Amino acid sequence: MVAVRVELPMNTPQVVLRERSGRGRQLRIFIGNTEATAIAFALEGVDTPRPLTHDLFCDVLDGLGVSLERVVITDLQETTYFADLHLKGADGVTIVSSRPSDAIALAVRADCSIFADEELLEDAGFVDDVDADTDVDPDEVVEEFRHFIDNVSPDDFAS
Question: Would the pTM of this model clear 0.90, i.e. be above it?
Answer without folding.
Answer: no
